[in-house]
Every structure is written in structure tokens, then in C-alpha cells.
């Protein structure tokens, strides 16, 4: 007989949010690994000690490909971290599980497409469309949170 699960784990919306959030966190780890691999391949290190270990101080430098990876990762942090907050609070509002899943899926898919477009330098406006599409569920969740909490301000 299984032990009773915590109340949060019985919340279908929260479990869906947890699934998509975990996918996004793993995606961020993959981008960090890619950044490190590009650094090694291009011999462009951010710290002198790393450059010295990998051939000399001449490799203590910036590289456009490394910087592209870093910008993709920074953009993830600027967008995924707010999603984590909004999605967690939204999950507590008892939304329709289907509607919530659609919100989470659209954000996740948009962020994945955004990263692919960034790293592979896909033709514009692919990246900006992916970014914009991913923002829609965040604005929707934020609005619903504000509407639900307005009576308490």
C-alpha cells in the first residue's frame, strides 16, 4: 500500500506544470552544456585560469558563437524564471486542467523553438515569433492571478 501523496501532488494542474517546468529546466542545462562545448571548440574562455589550462592567455577572449549561446541562455533565464513563478501560482487558482496544460505546452514549445532558432541562427522572424507566442500564456496567467488576487490588495 502506497503512502498518501502530498495534497499538491494530487493537483493535476500542478503536476502538469511540474512536468513542463522540468522540461524547461533540462533545456536550460542543455544550453549551458552547449555553451561550454562551444567554448572548448572555439578556445574562447571567460576566465584567465581556464585559458591557461587550455593553451594560454591568448584564449582568454570572447567569441561570437559563444556569445550567441550565452544570449540564448540569458534569454531563457529572463523568461523561464518568471514562468516558474506564474505557473506555480496559477496552478493554485484551480484552473481547468485542459486550459492549464495548453498554457504550459505553448510556453514550453515556444521556448524550445526560440532556443533552436537562436542557436541555429534560423531566418527571422522565427525567433521573435517563438518568443511572442511563448509570452501569451504568461500574460494570460498573470492576468488571471491579478484578477483572483485583486480583492486582497
Element layout with pairings:
Layout: H1 12-42, H2 48-53, H3 64-91, H4 97-119, H5 126-149
Helix pairs in contact: 1-3, 1-4, 3-4, 3-5, 4-5
Compact overview of the structure:
The protein is 73% helix and 0% strand. It has five helices and no strands. Helix 1 runs antiparallel to helix 3, helix 3 packs antiparallel against helix 4 (97-119) and helix 4 (97-119) runs antiparallel to helix 5 (126-149).
Report on this structure.
The structure is a single chain. The protein has one domain: Four Helix Bundle (Hemerythrin (Met), subunit A) (Up-down Bundle), CATH 1.20.120. The protein contains 5 helices and no strands. It has helices at 12-42, 48-53, 64-91, 97-119, 126-149.
State the CATH superfamily name: Membrane associated eicosanoid/glutathione metabolism-like domain
Mean pLDDT: 96
CATH architect. name? Up-down Bundle
Strand content: under 5%
N/C terminus separation: 44 Å
By DSSP, the count of extended strands is 0
What structural category do the secondary elements indicate? mainly alpha
The CATH class is identified as Mainly Alpha
Q: How would a textbook summarize the main sheet? A: none
Write down the secondary-structure element order: HHHHH
Low-confidence stretches: none
Number of helices: 5
General shape: elongated
User: Whole-number radius of gyration?
Assistant: 20 Å
CATH overall fold name: Four Helix Bundle (Hemerythrin (Met), subunit A)
Notable characteristics:
153 residues, mainly alpha, Four Helix Bundle (Hemerythrin (Met), subunit A), elongated, lipid metabolism, fatty acid biosynthesis, oxidoreductase
Amino acid at each position: 500500500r502506497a503512502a498518501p501523496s502530498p495534497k499538491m501532488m494530487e493537483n493535476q494542474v500542478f503536476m502538469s506544470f511540474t512536468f513542463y517546468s522540468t522540461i524547461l529546466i533540462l533545456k536550460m542545462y542543455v544550453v549551458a552544456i552547449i555553451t561550454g562545448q562551444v567554448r572548448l571548440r572555439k578556445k574562447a574562455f571567460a576566465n584567465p585560469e581556464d585559458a591557461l589550462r587550455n593553451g594560454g592567455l591568448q584564449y582568454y577572449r570572447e567569441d561570437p558563437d559563444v556569445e550567441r549561446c550565452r544570449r540564448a541562455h540569458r534569454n531563457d533565464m529572463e523568461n523561464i524564471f518568471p514562468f516558474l513563478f506564474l505557473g506555480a501560482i496559477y496552478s493554485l487558482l484551480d484552473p481547468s486542467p485542459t486550459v492549464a496544460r495548453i498554457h504550459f505546452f505553448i510556453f514550453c514549445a515556444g521556448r524550445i523553438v526560440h532556443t533552436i532558432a537562436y542557436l541555429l541562427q534560423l531566418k527571422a522572424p522565427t525567433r521573435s515569433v517563438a518568443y511572442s507566442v511563448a509570452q501569451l500564456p504568461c500574460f494570460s496567467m498573470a492576468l488571471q492571478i491579478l484578477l483572483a488576487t485583486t480583492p486582497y490588495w
